[in-house]
Specification:
The longest helix is centred in the first third of the chain and has 17 residues, at 71-87. The protein is built from 17 helices and 13 strands. It has helices at residues 2-15, 19-27, 34-49, 51-61, 71-87, 92-105, 112-124, 136-139, 144-154, 156-166, 217-220, 232-238, 255-263, 277-290, 332-335, 341-357, 377-386, and strands spanning 172-176, 196-199, 204-208, 224-226, 245-248, 269-274, 295-299, 311-317, 358-368, 390-393, 406-409, 412-415, 425-431. Strands 5, 6, 7, 8, 9, 10, 11, 12 and 13 form a nine-stranded mixed sheet that branches. The protein has a four-stranded antiparallel sheet with strand order 2-3-1-4, with helices on one face. By secondary structure, the protein is α/β, with parallel strands linked by helices.
Length: 434
């Protein structure tokens, strides 16, 4: 198990892989039981969540800095320190022993003594260095540039709240397919021996002890799909009616299209577009499982408008820096290098194209899963300045502040990561063109 976790961590830190994809690939093959799968997942993600502080611990007790170590040794020490200082439920001697054996097994016998010495010294001094409580950037392993930008975007207090909440282990949340079942907050409609969890507002459920959810009969019957509750606020912003037509411009993996179909009673017309054919095929597979009839998935480049087709509502969930998803993708914070000009240009081009699809009087919703001003409020303000027929409209509803942290600016909604939701930005624009 530790060898698998180490291999995945190497892929992420040395080769630029995404942890969720690398984990899915590694754990999708072989006969992994639920307990071992959970251990590997936790070890990889907790090492990444705490990477900055873990490196501080290693540097405190190693004469050779982390950055000068061989990649294998560097990452072996990282997962070992995570077991000793972060997870804590693992006996320290077991973590040290396994690290030494891994070093020997992978051809690093000559360095096994170094590994043993560093880790045993850390075990002997359990309270040094302590996790810093007053400095949230150090406590939650935020690089200096990202920490400074978070303060610029959110202010000191909300930046600290963002970092603290993004450090939590996320629950798996699912949305009930209301075209097949009646969901009530006070009733657990498909909870049985297969599924346990907490019923949330808005048709969502936070699962416990998930294992492989695709093996559940409720999954096979199309009674639910995986979705983040924060993403639902982009769907709410659309204000959909059963007779509406909707274009979801960057639809894959499709959650917002599926949720829109549920909101419309599967009676409207939804075009779910994505530029990647393989992702469109995956949407088609889910649509069949859910039994939805109103969604037409197509391959298309959202930056290039085609034809004269107009829609009552257009949803642009734009590609973004993804900083709102750090609970699930902690490695993103170490790759941040300031606002990406190419990404900002893509967002601009997509908004330009989206405007051409909106009927006069229709609604355009722009959303991201990040918190940067450049990608969010600044992008929307610039668009409205260049397209005077579009104006920002306040959202028809706002979240419950007791369950979801958020703030609004110019009528736009910025969700911060919460107990059950990622961070999302949502802006609702109305086309006042005659």
């Amino acid at each position: 198990m530790r060898g698998t976790a180490l291999a995945i961590l190497m892929e992420v830190t040395e080769d630029g892989a995404y942890a969720n994809i690398a984990l899915r690939k590694a754990l999708g093959s072989g006969n992994w039981d639920a307990r071992d799968r959970a251990f590997v997942t936790e070890l990889v993600n907790e090492t990444l969540r705490n990477l900055g502080w873990i490196d501080t611990v290693i540097n405190r007790f190693s004469k050779l800095p982390v950055g000068e170590m061989k990649p294998f040794i560097r990452n072996l020490l990282r997962i070992s320190v995570c077991q000793i200082r972060v997870l804590t439920k693992i006996p320290p001697h077991a973590a040290v022993h396994e690290a030494v054996e891994l070093a020997k097994a992978q051809g690093y016998a000559a360095l096994s003594g170094f590994v043993n010495g560093v880790l045993r010294t850390i075990v002997r001094t359990p309270n040094e260095p302590n996790l810093p409580e007053g400095n949230w950037a150090a406590r939650y392993s935020y690089p200096e540039e990202l920490a400074a930008d978070l303060i610029y975007w959110l202010g000191e207090e909300k930046a600290g709240e963002f970092a603290r909440n993004s450090h939590e282990i996320p629950a798996v949340t699912i949305y009930a397919n209301t075209t097949k079942i009646c969901f009530d907050d006070n009733v657990k409609p498909f909870l049985n021996e297969e599924i346990s969890g907490r019923v949330l507002a808005d048709g969502f459920l936070a699962l416990r002890h998930t294992g492989d959810i695709t093996a559940l009969q409720a999954f096979k019957d199309g009674l639910f799909f995986v979705m983040d509750p924060g993403a639902m606020w982009a769907v709410h912003a659309l204000g959909l009616k059963p007779t509406d037509t909707l274009l979801d411009m960057c639809a894959a993996p499709g959650g917002k299209s599926f949720a829109s179909a549920c909101v419309m009673g599967d009676a409207g017309e939804i075009t779910a577009m994505d530029i990647h054919p393989h992702r469109v095929r995956l949407m088609e597979k889910t649509i069949r499982r859910l039994g939805l009839k109103s969604i037409k998935p197509i391959v298309g480049d959202g930056t290039k408008p085609s034809g004269d087709m107009k829609y009552d509502a257009v949803l642009l969930d734009a590609p973004c820096s993804g900083l709102g998803t750090l609970r699930k993708r902690p490695e993103i914070k170490y790759r941040y290098d300031g606002p990406d000009p190419a990404l900002l240009e893509t967002q601009r081009a997509l908004l330009e194209s989206a405007a051409t699809y909106v009927k006069p009087g229709g609604t355009l919703v722009y959303s991201t899963c990040t918190v940067t001003r450049e990608e969010n409020i600044d992008r929307v303000r610039q668009f409205c300045k260049e397209h005077p027929s579009f104006e920002i409209e306040p959202l028809p509803a706002l979240p419950d502040e007791k369950t979801i942290p958020y703030f609004t600016e110019d009528g736009c909604l910025q969700l911060l990561p919460g107990e059950y939701n990622d961070g999302f930005f949502v802006a609702r624009l109305r086309n006042h063109e005659k």
